[in-house]
Design goal:
With 291 residues, this protein is an alpha/beta fold. The protein contains eight helices and seven strands. It has a seven-stranded parallel sheet with strand order 3-2-1-4-5-6-7, with helices on both faces. The longest helix has 22 residues. This is SDR family oxidoreductase. Pfam families: adh_short_C2. Belongs to the short-chain dehydrogenases/reductases (SDR) family.
């Protein structure tokens, strides 16, 4: 059982840093034993430098996959986090290459896929995890720039990357998209973010129907409140008090740890989920949602 940790008011600036989280997040359980579920696979994890992405990287590596991960360029904090994530994967005996890339550009996404396939010779698992959010309490003051940027980061990059990756994927490969519990509960302070996460759910279902006959599975994960740098860099930056006892509203009464998300992605990436496609898994602390 994961013990509840007390989270106090705090703030960071975007994109945020794992190293500055108080308390520190956990990324993999000490007793997690890999069993070669992803041996011989190559996975691309966007936003793999920190938070949920770092947990996915570490779990995939422990399960035998080689890793390509992206982080937002021009950020010393993200670059440092990416190096830590790379080291964690390499400690598992796996190859890991980091790519600083702005995923809002279709050209950058196409170039990224080409570089990954050239470096590793294949691509079997695509994890569309990179995302951003920033609170706004009044639609009439939500800037056009913020709306467009949120869509560029959260959903347009998913389209660009998946479109570029599909020609390199084959039967038994997997695409995993990170959506959010917010797509189902609609928090009033994250309208643009919530809209993109709803789009990811629909994209996942439609793409699954389009390509399931090829043996490529497409699923999504909808985390509840998870303790990652995105929270103090957005919610905390807007109002540090919002992070007091972060996650207390869940039935479990706490936020999740990234370490509790990584195994969900392992399941969807591996043959353990061979009869699952077009679905959304809900590691959210017990919140009941429809869909």
């Amino acid at each position: 059982m994961v013990q509840k940790t007390t989270i106090h008011a705090q703030s960071q600036t975007l994109p945020g840093s794992d190293e500055k989280l108080k308390p520190a997040a956990t990324f993999i359980r000490e007793d997690y034993q890999g069993s070669h579920k992803l041996a011989g696979k190559v996975a691309l994890v966007t936003g793999g430098d920190s938070g949920i992405g770092r947990s996915v990287v570490q779990h995939f590596a422990r399960e035998g996959a080689d890793i390509a991960l992206t982080y937002l360029p021009d950020s010393e904090e993200e670059a440092q986090d990416a190096k830590v994530a790379q080291q964690l994967a390499e400690q598992e005996g796996r190859k890991c290459v980091i790519y600083p890339v702005d995923l809002r550009s279709a050209d950058h996404c196409r170039q990224l896929i080409s570089r990954v396939v050239s470096e590793f010779g294949q691509l079997n698992i695509l994890v569309n995890n990179a995302g951003t959010q920033y609170p706004n309490e009044d639609l009439t003051t939500l800037s056009d720039e913020q709306w467009l940027n949120t869509f560029d980061v959260n959903i347009h990059s998913v389209f660009f990357l998946t479109k570029a990756a599909l020609p390199h994927m084959k039967a038994n490969d997997a695409i995993i998209n990170t959506t959010s519990v917010n797509a189902y509960i609609g928090p009033e302070i994250l309208l643009d973010y919530t809209a993109t996460k709803g789009a990811i759910v629909s994209f996942t279902r439609a793409l699954s129907n389009q390509i399931v006959s090829k043996g490529i599975r497409v699923n999504a994960v909808a985390p509840g409140p998870v303790w990652t740098p995105l929270q103090p860099a957005t919610l905390g930056h807007y109002n540090p008090r919002w992070l007091e006892d972060f996650g207390h509203e869940t039935p479990m009464g706490r936020a999740g740890q990234p370490s509790e998300l990584g195994p969900v992605y392992v399941f969807l990436a591996s043959q353990d989920s061979s009869f699952i496609s077009g679905q959304v898994l809900h590691p959210n602390g017990g919140t009941m949602v429809g869909g």
